[in-house]
Amino acid sequence: SRRVVLKEYVEGYPTEEHMELLPAADVDEAAAAAEGSVLVKNLYLSCDPYMRPKMSRPVGQSSYTSAFVPGAAITGYGVSQVVRSSLPGFAPGDLVRGITGWEDYSVIKPPFTGLLAKIQPDAGVPLSYYTGILGMPGLTAYVGFHHICSPKAGETVFVSAASGAVGQLVGQFARLAGCRVVGSAGSDKKVELLKKKFGFHDAFNYKSEGDDLAGALKRRFPEGIDVYFENVGGKMLEAALLNMRTHGRIAVCGLISQYNLTAGEKEGGATGVRNLECLVTKRVRMQGFIEPDHKHVYPEYEAWVVPHIREGRVVYVEDVAEGLDAAPRALIGLFHGRNVGKQVVSLATQ
Ligand code: NDP
């Protein structure tokens, strides 16, 4: 049995050296047997951008989740199978999704048992989807687009990081809602996926547009953008602000271009955003949101999306790394755009 630990807090970009694969202590029998705990075998681990702020030394309330503990197993969303349970409603053999450890076996204790949910084995969708389209990123795309963006049929929608776990879904949900949707991504291969696989009406590689991102958006949105689903921040946000239509909406889902800035870069003004006056002149609503506030929407979302998956109206692309030892590289790959689709780590065949 093995686990991946954070060796030390990270400043700037994380590397594989910041993490370590170690043998895990034998399962803590006492903890596993404690009332209300569940021992699970982990099958799929999710790599998510929010894990990067948790790798930084905690300062004040900078992140909405607490920092990882150096020397302890990294934690994150996953799909697991129950081995032993003293939690009512969970029995050996059950498949579950929730927050687990980056290790072969985990003992899930309160309060994390409160986030455990059983997976219906006969749903007819791949188990790994419960880290993505049927997990946290899926609900993020659904509430972020439908609740925060207030879209109307016929409106124009722009999505950044559009081929990723969240972005590929926002694009498809926008198309299903009758919007005209354009996405940006960081490689020509991803742009092809956006147009051919996910049905974006148009897409572009932002790395090929030089410094003129505002011009790139202007060409694709000659009448302006009604809805911007923001995943990256920085220069893309500045360009989008210039292209918003009157009464447009910006849903701030994430700002991944900022997550690896050093303290010095932040003090030097790297998080500053130009063109904010467009919010006033164009009466744009810009709103941040986090998925944990919307967990109660999950049953409605699942009931809506599963038929779309089964009948092929919504597709999902995953990038699956094999084995626990591949997990650190998979996680840091998010910050270099290496993942094509939702990044998952599979432990299922080990
Ligand atoms: P993705 O699967 O999209 O993976 C991250 C992608 O971000 C990379 O593949 C890369 O794609 C892009 N990227 C990385 N660095 C940069 C950069 N410096 N500038 C521009 N793009 C970059 O991740 P998710 O779909 O899981 O997450 C997308 C966003 O949503 C993140 O900001 C995340 O924090 C946020 N999020 C927010 C949630 C909430 O509750 N508010 C919940 C879940 C996610 P490319 O090749 O296109 O550059």
Overview features:
350 residues; alpha/beta; Quinone Oxidoreductase, Chain A, domain 1; binds NADPH dihydro-nicotinamide-adenine-dinucleotide phosphate; Rossmann fold; seven-stranded mixed sheet
Question: What does it look like?
Answer:
With about 350 residues, the chain is α/β, with parallel strands linked by helices. It folds into 2 domains: about 1-130 and about 315-345, Alpha-Beta Complex (Quinone Oxidoreductase, Chain A, domain 1); about 135-290, 3-Layer(aba) Sandwich (Rossmann fold). The protein is built from 10 helices and 15 strands. Bound molecules: NADPH dihydro-nicotinamide-adenine-dinucleotide phosphate. NADPH dihydro-nicotinamide-adenine-dinucleotide phosphate (NDP) binds near residues 161, 165 and 232. NADPH dihydro-nicotinamide-adenine-dinucleotide phosphate binds near residues 137, 163, 190, 255 and 339.
List the helices and strands and how they pair.
Blueprint: E1 2-6, E2 19-23, H1 29-33, E3 38-46, E4 75-85, E5 95-101, E6 105-108, E7 117-118, H2 136-148, E8 156-159, H3 167-176, E9 180-185, H4 188-196, E10 202-205, H5 213-220, E11 225-230, H6 235-243, E12 244-252, H7 263-267, H8 277-281, E13 285-288, H9 298-310, E14 318-322, H10 327-333, E15 342-346
The structure holds NADPH dihydro-nicotinamide-adenine-dinucleotide phosphate.
